[in-house]
Amino acid sequence: MRRVAKLSAACIATAALAVTATACGSTSSDNNESSSSSGGGKGVKIGLAFDVGGRGDRSFNDSAARGADKAKKEFGGEIKELTAKTSDTEADREQRLSDLAEAGYNPVVGVGYAYAASMTKVAAKYPKTSFGIVDSVVDGKNVDSITFTEEQGSYLAGVAAALKSKSKHVGFIGGVDVPLIKKFEAGYVQGVKDTNPKIKVDTQYLSHGSDTSGFASPDKGKEAAQGMLDNGADVIYTAAGSSGNGAIEAVAGKKGAWAIGVDSDQYNIPGLSKYKSAILTSMVKNVDVGVYDFVKSVHDGKPLTGTNSYSLAKDGVSLATSGGFIDDVQAKLDAAKKKITDGSIKVKTTP
Question: Where are the domains of the chain?
Fold first, then answer.
C-alpha cells in the first residue's frame, strides 16, 4: 500500500452536500450501535463515525474499518464506533462527531460524504482534534479530505463488462442518485461505450435525494438486478453498499451472468462466498489505505490536512483479479489503464 502524496486543498465539491458514500449499509440500516476495542500502550484513540450500515456492510464501511483496525494493531489504542441511521438529520451527524471529539478521540473520521456539513462545524469547534472525511472535501485547518477517482476505476469496470457481455446488454445500479454515485455511473458507461458503442446500458437508482435507504436495502438491490436480468442484461455493476449484496445474489441465480462488486474485493468477502463464482471483479476503492494513512499521520504527530486524492495511477482504485475471471481480458484492461493514467483518456465525472 502506498502513501499518496498530499495535494493542495480544493473547493468544497457539490457532493459534499449529499449523503453517504459509495457503498454503505448493512442489512440493519437503522443501527446506531457503538463499540470500542482496547489496545495496549499509549497508541491512538480512533473515533469512527460510520455511514448507514456501519461495520459489517461487506463493502464501503468495512473498508474504512480495515484501515482503522490495521492502525490499532500497529500503534495500539482503541476504536470507538458510532453508526448513522437512514433517518439521520444534520443535527444527528453533528452530534455524533461532537460526541467522539468531546470524549477525547483523536483522530475522528467521518466515513462518508454525508458528514461534510457537520464536520465543517465540528472541526472548527475542536481545533486540537484532527478530523478526516472520506469522499468529500471539507475546508478546515484540522481536516484531511480523503477522496478517490471512482470514475477511473469504474471506467475499467465498464471495459471489463463490455468485453465479457455475451448479450451486449449490461446494467448499472446506484444506491442514491447523488453526485458521488453519478461518478461511478459516468465512468462505467464511458468504459462500456468506448469499448463497444453498440452495447446497451441500463441504469437504475434505488433511492433519491436525502433518502439513503438505497445504500442499505439488499431487497431493493435484488429486485433491481432481477429486473435488468429479465430485460436481457448479463453483467451488472452495483455501487450501492449492502444493497449490492442483493444484486449479487440475483445475478448468481442466472447462469452466465456476471456481477461486478464495489469498494471491497467482494469475491473474498466471507458473507458472499456462495455467490463468488458470479463475481466477475470488483472496483476496489482503497478507503482502508486512506484511513490508515490519516491515522498514522496523527500518531506520528504530523496530521495530514487538505485534500489527499487516491487515484488510479497511485492504486487508490483498481479492479480486483480474484477468481481469475478477467485474466483473458487483462491485457486490454491494462491498456485502458495506461491511457487513463497518461491522460490519453479523460474520464467523465457526470453521466
Answer: 14-148+287-310, 150-285+315-341
The 10s digit of each residue's pLDDT in 273-308 is 999 999 999 999 999 999 999 999 999 999 999 999
Of 174, 215, 167, nearest in space to 192 by CA: 167
Strand pairing category for 279-285 and 317-319: antiparallel
| DSSP codes, 274-314 | GGGGGEEEEEEE-HHHHHHHHHHHHHTT----EEEEE-TTT
**pLDDT tens string 321-339:** 999 999 999 999 999 999 9
For 14-148+287-310, CATH number out of 2.60.40.1940, 3.40.1280.10, 3.40.50.2300, 3.40.50.720 equals 3.40.50.2300
How many CB atoms neighbour CB 105 within 10 A? 24
- Give pLDDT tens digits for 141-160: 999 999 999 999 999 999 99
Q: What is the residue-wise DSSP string for 192-256?
A: HHHH-TT-EEEEEEEE-TT-GGGGS-HHHHHHHHHHHHHTT--EEEEESTTHHHHHHHHHHTSTT
Q: 3 with 47: CB under 8 angstroms?
A: no
Q: Is the pLDDT of residue 256 over 90?
A: yes
* pLDDT at residue 330 in the model: 98
